[in-house]
Design goal:
This protein has 876 residues and is of the alpha+beta class. The protein is built from 22 helices and 36 strands. The strands form eleven sheets. The protein has a six-stranded antiparallel beta barrel with strand order 9-10-16-15-12-17. It has a four-stranded parallel beta sheet with strand order 2-1-7-8, with helices on both faces. α3 packs across α5, α6 crosses α15 and α9 crosses α14. The longest helix is centred in the first third of the chain and has 28 residues.
């Protein structure tokens, strides 16, 4: 008998089916040993000796493994093919040795595979090797570094800044990124500028747009027209002039597909397209990798999902090319296969990109057997892999300069028309910004020296905008660019920052909370070297050198510890007032940002003589008066920006506000401010009933009626007309929600948890189930301007080509030629669609049965075929 060890029971079940009766596959359930969470687990004075313990939860697994190996011929360690997987195999082996449970005559082998398919597993078994101690030591070094930072720096943080949470080696650097961006935004001063656009027509009367690029012989830079008066002056001068085409610069551009997904790019695109958090993406990908029952066969659907490699096996490339030829035609297949490369220093971890294990297992074949999130992520991975081997998209681009007859002005126009969609037929790359590409509109045919007519001059005012806050996608991208962390760490970095309440995710953007800003200011002030981007990246590179066998892991620890402990010891001599004074000075623009101009922000508003300064308490930092205890004025710190605080909450004092008495219980109802925001409370018992005040309600708008309604939540709205099951409205950790048939739906926008009725609740649930509308896509071509304003564009959709104007979509008639379809044909088609009864051809409205005691109203349903790209509600 051969015993095989993997991490998870799902993986074990799949592999056991492939190997047969001569193999016994067991799961370790992840790591079986770790450093105990107490001082002394890593001992720098003993050359970084490390003490590991078998976790209580893992003792059962180790006993099962020990029992299985007795009398077995071979122990095969088949954990994941990265540092963490290598370390798990080593820890399993060491735990067996320490427990004297490893037979002396048993053979021990290590096998790795990138996908859980029968061929991959059987092939891996033919090529066993020994445990790679370079990978193990790299993981040990990383674990030791994280442990030493946590158990050395965190106690300093707790003593100097009571109420703060712990500090982490990599998480602290990610926190600094978010805080630095917030600081940039707070310091940003918007600057006004103007540009001048024009509406023109060609000789045949076709309208197009151009922008003033040169004036009086000078090229206009961004801020050359700073005020409205100057813009109007130039605009008036442009009127009445004669214009002709000075030059035409046509060229053809090709857009090439991106490589298949790595861990980082998968997390980024899943965030943008599907609304998944990095953590959710990895959870779903793990299930797809480990294997699912598909038609009676358990099979892994994707390759290993923790990778920074972009290479793909030859078999997978050939399979993709064959499918492209069959499904899309030869014109979508490049003459030679595409090969992607990445600068990967550590070749031992250069695994394949994330791809389907079998591209012929198309998403439509799996839609009925996969859970919705699993299907959506699999579809994303499948499309990215297929698109990576498709032909490039081709665009005709043209740049035209139009000169006034008196040589005073040059207008510049650009246009782009897609001539061949190529890989864009299947997959469109997502971006963090939603700006429209000005070059995506088409230009009419123009010739040099052709006269054009000026119809309208349009001066436009603009203001510079601060850099955007990080989304999960852009934060992961930045961490990867800086070399901070590794693919397997991004999800945990982001989760830890949120769990410690250092940052908040508001409208999909990260905002540093007051606690996070203070911790970051402390680290920047006293441990700056260890939150420097370059230093952290260099340390990651040294760990890569360890895993490549080029550097001794303990030497890395020695060099790092020598400086780190000196910095910690220096900080221990500082008094708490000294630390608070330093942090207070560094954060002064943030702490006192809402004080009216012309007033001293540090003068106590209560006593008028005391000075405000940063203090710390049980719930974190706050502002207090220097005349304490004679003056008891305090003010909590709130985060900048976002919708995470009730309007006016900052001005609400620390004293409770009595709203009235509950007529049922006779208990007093109070409005209070806590560390997590405003809330209402019933009575003053040991565990009184409480409810958060919804974020759109200001404290001075909170009434007894509102408070009692909140305290009565959750409330039953009514039964769903189709399922007959009750719909409940409530207020949870992540905001207001509906609960129906054990599934939660977040309430957004104008929907009020206190007043929403049954018809609206049914609609919200139906919209969530359908997934909403489409993400923005690139048009095949822009046909021209609509008589009512705006452009008309031609798109390729799931159900065929269609034209779009404003919010109206109209499918092209059967047999219509996409290449030659014109604006003149599109306008009456759109008019007919806009004038229809409101029933959409691809779904329509359905009338649902009315619930009891309430008049039914039509409930709009949307097809699941066109999912809306928005975040799924978080589970309660």
């Amino acid at each position: 008998m051969n015993v095989v060890i993997v991490e998870s029971p799902a993986k074990a079940k799949t592999i056991n089916k492939y190997l047969g009766k001569d193999y016994h596959v067991l799961a370790s359930f992840g790591h079986v040993r770790d450093l105990p969470a107490k001082d002394g687990s890593v001992r720098p004075a003993e050359d970084f000796a490390m003490t590991y313990e078998v976790d209580d939860d893992a003792k059962k697994q180790i006993s099962a493994i020990a029992k299985a190996v007795k009398g077995s011929d071979k122990l095969i360690l088949a954990t994941d093919p990265d540092r963490e997987g290598e370390a798990i195999s080593w820890h399993v082996l060491e735990a067996l040795k320490e427990g004297k449970s490893l037979p002396k005559d048993i053979a021990v082998e290590r096998v790795v595979f990138n996908e859980i398919t029968k061929n991959a597993i059987l092939e891996a078994m033919k090529h066993p090797r020994a445990i790679d101690m370079d990978l193990v030591n790299a993981q040990q070094a990383r674990r030791a570094l994280d442990y030493l930072v946590g158990f050395t720096l965190s106690p300093v943080l707790w003593r100097k800044l009571p109420g703060s949470k712990s500090a982490g080696r990599v998480q602290s650097v990610a926190l600094r990124l978010i805080c630095d961006r917030d600081e940039e935004i707070e310091k940003f001063v918007s600057q006004e500028y103007w540009d001048i656009k024009t509406n023109l027509t060609s000789l045949d009367g076709t309208p197009f747009k151009a922008k003033l690029s040169h004036w009086q012989g000078k090229k206009l830079e961004k801020f050359d027209i700073p005020v409205e008066a100057r813009a109007k002056e130039i605009s008036a001068a442009l009127e009445g002039k004669q214009y002709k085409v000075q030059s035409i610069d046509p060229k053809q551009a090709r857009r090439h597909p991106y490589a298949p997904f790595t861990t980082s790019t998968l997390q980024q695109d899943a965030s943008r397209k599907l609304g998944f958090s990095a953590k959710r993406t990895m959870q779903v990908a793990q299930k797809l990798y480990e294997g699912l029952d598909i038609g009676g066969e358990t099979v892994g659907l994707i390759t290993y999902m923790r990778t920074d490699g972009v290479t793909v096996s030859q078999d997978a490339i050939l399979a993709a090319r064959t499918l492209i030829s069959q499904n899309y035609g030869e014109k979508y297949l490049p003459s030679s296969q595409r090969v992607y490369k990445v600068k990967q220093k550590n070749a031992q971890e250069a695994h394949e990109a994330i791809r389907p294990t079998d591209v012929t297992r198309t998403p439509d074949k799996l839609e009925q057997v996969l859970e919705r999130d699993m299907f959506r992520l699999y579809e994303l991975i499948w499309k990215r892999m297929m698109a990576s081997q498709m032909e490039s998209a081709v665009f005709d681009q043209v740049a035209v300069d139009i000169e006034s007859a008196d040589k005073q002005a040059i207008l510049h126009a650009t246009g782009s028309v897609m001539r061949f969609d190529g890989f864009l037929k299947l997959y469109i790359e997502s971006r963090d910004d939603d700006e429209e590409d000005e070059e995506s509109r088409a230009l009419p045919p123009l010739n040099a020296d052709e006269a054009v007519a000026l119809k309208e001059v349009l001066p436009e005012q603009h203001f510079t905008e601060p850099p955007p806050r990080y989304t999960e996608a852009s934060l992961v991208k930045k961490l990867e660019e800086l070399g901070i962390g590794r693919p397997s760490t991004y999800a945990s970095i982001i989760s830890v920052l949120q769990e410690r309440q250092y940052v908040t995710l508001d409208k999909k953007r990260f905002i540093a909370d007051a606690r996070g800003r203070i911790v970051n200011a402390f680290l920047v002030s006293f441990f700056r070297r260890y939150v420097e981007y370059d230093f952290t990246a260099q340390l990651e590179e040294r760990l890569d050198d360890v895993s490549a066998g080029e550097l001794d892991w303990k030497q890395v620890l020695r060099e790092w510890w020598e400086q780190f402990i000196l910095t910690v010891n220096d900080t221990k001599t500082l008094t708490n007032p000294q630390v608070l004074e330093t942090v207070d000075a560094l954060l002064e623009p943030y702490i006192y940002r809402n004080v009216p101009k012309g007033t001293d922000p540090r003068v106590c508003p209560t006593c008028g003589t005391g000075r405000l300064g940063l203090k710390t308490g049980k719930f974190g930092a706050f502002l207090g008066c220097s005349n304490y205890p004679d003056c008891k004025y305090t003010k909590e710190l709130v985060s900048s920006g976002g919708d995470n605080a009730n309007p006016g909450a900052e001005a609400f004092g620390n004293e409770a506000k009595i709203l009235g008495t509950d007529p049922k219980s006779g208990l007093e109802v109070q409005l209070k401010k806590g560390p997590y925001g405003m809330y209402v409370q019933l009575g003053n018992e040991k565990k009184p009933k409480r409810a958060s005040l919804p974020k759109h309600i200001a404290p001075d708008q909170a009434t007894l009626e509102i408070a009692l309604s909140l305290l009565s939540l959750p409330r039953e709205i009514g039964t769903h007309p189709e399922t007959g099951k009750m719909i409940v409205a409530g207020l949870g950790r992540f905001g207001p929600y509906l609960l129906h048939d054990t599934k939660y739906t977040s309430l957004k926008g104008d929907d009020d948890v206190l007043t929403i009725g049954i018809n609206r609740a049914v609609t919200v649930i139906a919209e969530k189930k359908a997934g909403g509308g489409r993400a923005a896509v690139t048009p095949l071509k822009v046909l021209g301007d609509h008589p009512d304003g705006g452009s008309v564009a031609l798109y390729s959709g799931k159900y065929g080509p269609y034209v779009k104007h404003d919010k109206i979509n109209a499918s092209l008639p059967k047999g219509a030629n996409v290449e030659t379809y014109t604006l003149e044909e599109a306008i009456p088609l759109l008019a007919e669609r806009a004038g229809s009864s409101g029933k959409k051809k691809s779904g329509g409205f359905k009338k649902k049965a009315a619930p009891a005691k309430e008049k039914a109203t039509p409930v709009k349903e949307k097809k699941a075929a066109a999912p809306k790209k928005k975040a799924a509600p978080k589970s309660k």
